[in-house]
Amino acid sequence: MNKTVVCFGETLWDVLPTGRQPGGAPFNVAVQLHQLSQPVQLISRVGSDDLGRELLAFLAARGLSTAYVQRSHTHLTGVVKANVDNRNEVTYKIVQPVAWDYIQFEDALHQLVAGAAGLVFGSLAARTETTRATLHRLLPAARFKVFDVNLRPPHYTREEVEYLLGQSNLVKVNEHELAEILGWYGRGPAPDEASLAWLAQHFHLQAVCVTLGAEGAVLWHEGQRYRSPGLVVAVQDTIGSGDAFLAALLTSWLAGEAPAQCLRFACAAGALVATYQGATPVLTRAQVAKFMAEQPA
Predict the structure, then answer these.
(1) In 3D, which of 219, 210, 123, 211 has the Cα closest to residue 162?
(2) Is the pLDDT of residue 160 over 90?
(3) Which DSSP string do the residues of 120-140 spell out, in sequence order?
(4) 245 closest CA partner among 141, 296, 174, 186
(5) 39 upstream amide cis, omega within 30 of 0
C-alpha cells in the first residue's frame, strides 16, 4: 500500500525578530514527516519570486519533492509576521492575498491524493475561494483525512470549520480551539470524556487529539480517552511544536502503533522542537526515542 501522506495548504515565510524562517503548518508537518522517515508530498503554491525560489530550495535541500508545489506569476510568496514576545504563545499577522491562496485544482493532484495513505489540511488554506474549492474537490478522494484545525482569526468561518470537521477522520485541535468549537454548541470547554465523545459522535470522527501545551495532550479514539503528560523542557519558542506533534502522531498512527504510544511519541516530538528556535529543526526518530528514554519514569 502507498504510505505517502499528502500535506495541503500554506507555504510561507515566518518573519521573526531574528530573521525569516520557512513555515506554514502543512509545510512544517511535511518537513517533519519526511525527517521521521514517512513518505510525503506537499501541495502548495509559491510566487515566482526570490522568496518562492528560496522555499523550494529549502525543501530540496531537506530532500523533499517540490513536484506539487505550484508557481504563481501573479501573486507573491506568503509571509507571516510572528510576534514571539511570549515564547509560549506566539501570535501571527498573516498577509493576504498571496500565492497559496490560489492553489489550482489539477487532475494530478486528485490522483496523488487518491493513491495516498492520508491527506493533512487546515482551516487557514480554506480562507479564499480558489484554494478552498481545490481542497473541497480533493477531500472525497482521500482515504484518511486529517484536519489540523489551526484557527487564525479572522481567516476562518464557523461554516467552513464545521464542513471540514464533517469531512475528517482524525482531528487535531488545541485546547483554545476546542473550547471555541464546543462553545458553538453550548458545551463546556474542557477536553473531558463527555466533550470529546460528543464531538467525535457529532462529526463521525475516528479520533480527536487535543494538545494542551506544556500539559501534554489527550487523544479520544474508539470510545477511549488517552492522556500523555507534558515533558519539561527549556523552551526557545513554540513555533512548529504542534506541527512536529502532528507529524509524529501520524507516523506512529500509520505504523499501527497503540494510541497511547502514538500520543507519547507525539508529545515528545513537540517538546523537543520547542527546545530549538524555528519550526523545522532536524528531527529524527532516533532523536525522539533518545529524548523519551531520558525522561524521568
Answers:
(1) 123
(2) yes
(3) EEESGGGSSHHHHHHHHHHGG
(4) 174
(5) no
Pick from 6, 31, 24, 251: nearest CA to 110: 6
Q: What is the C-alpha to C-alpha distance for residues 181 and 187, in angstroms, rounded to an integer? A: 9
In sequence order, the β-bridge partners of residue 94 are 80
Per DSSP, 206 falls in state S
**Judging by DSSP bridges, how do beta strands 224-228 and 217-221 pair with one another?**
antiparallel
Supply the angle between the helices 129-138 and 107-115 in degrees, to the nearest 10.
40
Is the Cα torsion angle 198, 240, 23, 247 positive or negative in sign? Answer: negative
Q: CA-to-CA distance for 178 and 191, rounded, in angstroms?
A: 8
Tell me, what's the pLDDT at 189? 79
What whole-number distance in Å separates Cα of residue 26 and Cα of residue 159?
22
Note the pLDDT of residue 90.
Answer: 66
Q: Catalogue the E-assigned strands of the chain.
A: 5-8, 12-16, 19-23, 40-47, 69-72, 78-83, 91-94, 118-122, 145-148, 170-174, 207-211, 217-221, 224-228
CB 240 within 8 A of CB 90: no
Q: Which pTM does this prediction carry?
A: 0.95
**Which domains are delineated in the chain?**
5-288 (3.40.1190.20)
Q: Which residues 6+ apart lie within 8 Å of 65 measured at CB?
A: 41, 42, 59
124: cell is 487557514
Residue with cell 474542557: 190
